[in-house]
Design brief:
six-stranded mixed β-sheet; single chain; alpha/beta; 18% strand
């Protein structure tokens, strides 16, 4: 009997113990990454962003940069590419342009001796092609000038508007302001007489008068005459410019008188 008990006991002892399921949750697995790997490189900016220029305020006007006057100069065939064009219609405008007033005002100019040196286009002394070439070359050179000085007013003793477009500041603009009569303040527009003056160039002088159509306030179109003067040289003189202005005004008045007489004759015939 003891042998049987020992056998049973041995059998019990040799059986593997029963495993009891654990109720403890398995700890989560944590994956570690290096600091270099955790930094994400941002994508590059699109190319369109790099093409954007600097921001600027609009309108960007300042002394010498006036949009309305620049458009007016464009109509006269001159584009102030350096963005420095001064409209000088009164003495205060000279100070704005950094210039001094002339000591004498009004300034009387005797230009009789210079009149023969300013021929009219279409005359024996100057053909139209030569004048047109000189005019276009002068306009192009003025457009490239560092600054433009543009005195304007009435020709003395008349109500004929005159504008001088020049690259000459202290040497000419104050004298022209003193010579021309001050005109009523208005928005800039093209004048009956436009004079292009260029210094530092070959010498040339001439003027031309042509008839154009002008739109009136009521929408009608009428024929009017306009004059263009070109004076270039190393240092164009005031007397030469005044001679061109005087000859131009006389030509405009003659054309106006001729049209009036023609219209009167037509009305009388009716």
């Amino acid at each position: 009997m003891n042998a049987a008990i020992r056998t049973v006991a041995r059998g019990v002892a040799t059986k593997a113990p029963r495993r009891i399921p654990s109720t403890t949750a398995t700890a989560p697995t944590i994956r570690l990454f290096s600091a270099a790997a955790s930094q994400t490189t941002p994508p590059p900016l699109p190319e369109s962003v790099t093409r954007v220029g600097e921001a600027m305020a609009f309108p960007n006007e300042y002394p010498g940069q006036n949009y309305i006057f620049n458009w007016c100069l464009n109509a006269d065939g001159v584009t102030p590419l350096k963005k420095s064009a001064f409209r000088i219609a009164k003495p205060l405008d000279l100070k704005v342009a950094g210039l001094e007033l002339h000591k004498t005002s009004p300034l009387k100019v005797n230009a009789k001796g210079e009149r023969s040196k300013v021929p009219e286009a279409g005359s024996d002394g100057l053909d139209f092609d030569t004048f047109d070439d000189a005019l276009q070359s002068t306009k192009d050179s003025l457009s490239l000038s560092d600054s433009l000085f543009c005195p304007e007013g009435h020709a003395p003793g008349t109500r004929t508007g005159v504008r001088v477009i020049s690259n000459m500041g202290a040497n000419l603009a104050p004298e022209l302001v003193a010579y021309l009569e001050r005109a009523p303040k208005r928005d800039p527009k093209s004048q009956p007489v436009t004079c292009y003056v260029l210094s530092g160039s070959d010498e040339f002088s001439g003027y031309a008068i042509e008839e154009v159509e002008e739109t009136m306030e009521d929408g009608s179109r009428v024929a009017v005459s306009v004059a263009t003067i070109v004076v270039t040289g190393k240092t164009p003189s005031l007397k030469r410019i005044v001679a061109g202005i005087e000859l131009s005004v006389e030509g405009l008045e003659a054309d106006s008188k001729e049209r009036a007489e023609k219209k009167a004759a037509e009305e009388k015939a009716e």
